[in-house]
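Q: What would this chain look like folded?
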Amino acid sequence: MADLLHSITIEANPRSVYAAVATQKGMRGWWTADTVMQAKPGGKVEFGFEKRAVVFRMRIEALEPGRRVALSCSGDPDEWAGTTLEWTVTPGEEGTRIDFVHGNWKAMTPYAVMCNSTWGELMYRLKKYVETSRPNPHWKK
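A: My prediction, written as C-alpha cells:
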C-alpha cells in the first residue's frame, strides 16, 4: 500500500482551516465547486469534475471539530476505491499546520503520482482560500 502525503502552514486560526475541509462551502472554495456534502459522520460526499463527467463518491468517517476530517472513497475512478483522505489540523506559533494523507493506494502507479502532484497544488489553493476568504476552486464545474 502507498500513501500520498502533504503538509502546509496556513496563516489562520484552526477553526477556519478546519471549516475549509469539513464543510461543503469550504470544499467548494478550493477543490471543486461541484461539491455536495452531508457534513456529519456517515454522511455522503460527492465531488464532481468536468460537468460531472467524473464524480468521486465518498463517506465521512470522522469529523473531529477543529482537529480532523477523514473520508473513505468508494471509487470513481477505480484507483481511488478503498483509499482514504484525511486532513489533520494542528495549531502552531506561525499559524495552523494542516497535514493531508491520501492513503491506502494499492500501488504507486503513474495515475497515483499524478494525483499526488495535483494534491500539492490543491494544498496551496486551500491555503490561499483560507487566508483570503476568496473562493478559487481548481474545478469550477
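The first strand starts at residue 2 and ends at 10.
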